[in-house]
Amino acid sequence: MKWVIVTGGTRGIGKGISEKLIEHGYGVLAIFKEREDEALKFGNEYGFERIRIRKCDVTNPQDTGRLFQDLAIFPKNDEAIALVNNAGIYPRSSDAKDFIEMLSTNLVAPYKLIQEFAEYRRYIAINIGATGTGAVVNIGAVNGLPGRPASMPLYPASKAGLHRMCELLAAEYAREKLLHINTIVCGAVDTEMLQTNPASRQAHIDNTPTGKLTTPEEVGAVALWLISMRESNLVGAQIVLNGGKCP
Q: Known Gene3D superfamilies for this protein (predicted)?
């Protein structure tokens, strides 16, 4: 079976991505950090043959190191062919501690995970003869694009850094024919976080040309497509999923 690692893969956007991948025959290794009961319930819905739930702090090198060590001993016919960097946080305040935590999660962790995933792909190529290009899909944000308004500069700064970093990594790993890296740049997505603020949710709907919000399932469909296109020349792209909304 072909497996996909999805960070933050048991709720919100990540859950939508995980469900879409399972629906189309992939196994999913869904990473979570908090709300364990909810994560295990999600795993039970699909059966643990198709989804594996793993608690992992993506900012902790020991946690991620163990994750990829476990992947390296998958059965011979199983391999992880893609990584979806979805886990992210919004700062609770502009306090330096919160900003550092956010940068660690939104920017540094994806960088380290891409490196570790690349090492894993090299390892299985040598040891089990796996061939083909792996895929990395990053979940960005429209307020990290140039010229976009934002109420707080710190979160957009982290996402702008993610966008730029992945452009550069995409070229590096494409030359090696190891990974094809692309980014889905999301606007407002109809998740629990937005649903708890009805006024903000409605404002986003009113200001979106399509008159509706992006759903987690729609993000999942784009992630699925990018993974299916991993052998193509689609590399370093930023695909904006925002209902046509302009700054």
A: NAD(P)-binding Rossmann-like Domain
Fold of 2-241: Rossmann fold (3.40.50)
Integer CA distances (angstroms), 235 to 74, 102, 116, 133, in order: 28, 26, 19, 11
List, for residues 111-161, the tens digit of each pLDDT value. Answer: 999 999 999 999 989 888 878 999 999 999 998 998 776 667 788 999 999
CA–CA separation, 144 and 110 (whole Å)? 16
Quote the DSSP letter at residue 245. -
Phi, psi (degrees; rounded to nearest 5) at 111: -60, -50
- Measured CA to CA, the distance from residue 55 to residue 170 in angstroms comes to 28
Q: Are strands 51-55 and 79-85 parallel, antiparallel or unpaired?
A: unpaired
Q: How far apart are CA 213 and CA 187, in angstroms?
A: 8
Task: Please report which confidence band the pLDDT of residue 247 belongs to, taking 50, 70 and 90 as the band edges.
Answer: low
Strand order in the sheet with 134-141: 51-55, 27-32, 2-7, 79-85, 134-141, 179-186, 238-241
